[in-house]
Amino acid sequence: MSIYGDCQQYLQPILDQVLAQIKQLNDGYQQRTGAKLYEHLEGRVKSEGSMVEKLHRKGYDQTPTAALRACKDAIGLRIVTNFIDDIYTTIALLKAQPDIAIVKEKDYITHAKPNGYRSYHMIVEKTVNYPDVEGNFPGKYFIEIQLRTIAMDTWASLEHEMKYKHDIKNPEMISKELARVADDLASCDVSMQTIRKLIREDQ
Ligand code: 0O2
């Protein structure tokens, strides 16, 4: 029996639906403005093993209800943009979707984590034409959406790699360097944003 119970069969189709919905938002935006909303978009259904481990770590029951209601990232997607402004434009478009309700937002861009991590996190609840774990139809499923620039994404991948390597020789020095580079990248993101604004103002 899956940790997601009978709902397991719906998770990938729901992820596919939301990915298609965001691609459509991008197409509409591109038609209106000539610019793209994001550089790339990716998504995953959290593996059963990762969910079992997370439930254990958080002290939740090993049940489909805990996996789909207490944990809110069984379905997750990441939107990677070229510029910081594009993140907030995308958020505004997502908020205007009638089948998507915002549950929680964390702005680690305005308030970076002490290690240098930057990203905008949203937990949304999407209404779908499938039953949910509580037996409602239409059902409601949580989705975690992470939005970040290419620079923030590259940094997060490297930092993630470091976290899972336990034989690093000088972890303090590397953490310090990572924090310093995160600030440099943030400063470049702001400069890129400013340059784009200047170019567009001239047009
Ligand atoms: P995975 O495998 O990436 O999904 P939660 O643990 O989700 O219940 P929390 O801790 O409040 O609650 O979530 P938060 O802060 O929104 O972070 C959730 C996800 O953001 C993490 O997922 C990471 O993917 C990413 N993240 C957060 N902080 C960092 C960081 O310092 N560095 C990097 N590289 N990524 C980060 P999980 O749960 O770790 O796992």
UniProtKB/TrEMBL annotation:
<comment type="pathway">
    <text>Purine metabolism; ppGpp biosynthesis; ppGpp from GTP: step 1/2.</text>
</comment>
<dbReference type="Pfam" id="PF04607">
    <property type="entry name" value="RelA_SpoT"/>
</dbReference>
<dbReference type="InterPro" id="IPR052366">
    <property type="entry name" value="GTP_Pyrophosphokinase"/>
</dbReference>
<dbReference type="GO" id="GO:0015969">
    <property type="term" value="P:guanosine tetraphosphate metabolic process"/>
</dbReference>
<feature type="domain" description="RelA/SpoT">
    <location>
        <begin position="43"/>
        <end position="170"/>
    </location>
</feature>
<dbReference type="InterPro" id="IPR007685">
    <property type="entry name" value="RelA_SpoT"/>
</dbReference>
<dbReference type="InterPro" id="IPR043519">
    <property type="entry name" value="NT_sf"/>
</dbReference>
<protein>
    <submittedName>
        <fullName>GTP pyrophosphokinase</fullName>
    </submittedName>
</protein>
